Amino acid sequence: MSCLSWKAMQVIFLKVLSSSAAIVATFMTLSTLLMMNLLNSKPHHLNNHDNTERSSRYSLSPGRQIMTVPHLEKSTLSDFDSLTRTVWNPRDYRDVNVPSPACMLNLPLLILVTSSPEHYDRRKAIRETWARDWLDPQNTEWRTIFLIGQTLNNPSLNKSLERESVVHGDILMGNYLDTYRNLTLKVQHGMSWAQETCQPQYLLKTDDDCFVNSRMFTNFLKTSNKQQTKLYAGFPISNLEVVRDPKSRWYVSRETYRPSQFVPYASGTGYVLSKDVLQAMVSTARYVQPFAAEDAYTGLLASYTDIPLLDSARFALNNVNWRLCNYLFLLVVHDVTPDQQVVGLRNSIESHTRCNGQAEATDWN
Question: Does the keyword Transmembrane belong to this entry (predicted)?
Fold first, then answer.
């Protein structure tokens, strides 16, 4: 084999070096163009459904189910029915012109009531009954706050809500559309505010068509409740099939939640959380994609944080055939009209004097 001259070897080396430099330069150019394209690309927004999401993935902990992570964009109010997300923060829904209500730190019981903007009659009835302690007006054992969103095409109603908030100081307004499919955003906004502002010992979530036996509730939590931590209690819903019909108000896509059934959860009629559970749920919610079933979503947060559901019969889904002495047991009653709130309060008070010496229930069942 003949040997190459030193000069020939130099020529070959320079050609190889030149070719390599060209390849590297080409690669760098293509990489730069690709990165610029990614940075300038806009997320695809889906329409026709409140709070529609596009998901990425996040693992909560080794061995746990993969969570879908939503990304919160800086959106105008009109965009809030078609969001695209990767990590969200309920505090971003607070950009409104209405001051947040005051709340005592370490409050024994904070009651969050989901309410629609037009339900003034329901809020009025609650304010005049169980929102306060009629037997002891100086009692500060509980505080009732209404959670309300915005309307797009009714500025007069928004103004009316602002005035109502100023007068009563009990409305937490959020910068989201007040729609059924945004109910999860409403509740998570309330929980985030509660954790940041009040840090209550217990939090009760309920609706504006419910009666809350508030005086007995706070007394029970203080004197009889044996589960002061890891408490997530309510009327249990189990084996509920996930709705996949895009036309349904309860529609949840497989991309958002893959299992065919929801994990067991407490009915949104009323459920109570201890302070540590509230804190854990607020922290976890930032990484779990919200879907249009508020109570099922809360149950999913409980599942991710290893909080078992405490089954309690003291949360009634219906307002039928309850007798006076049942109010020594019932904590929350659903399907109550504004006029029936007065009846519930009267029954709660009279049950202590007219039930033949019967005492309040001292456990969850």
Answer: yes
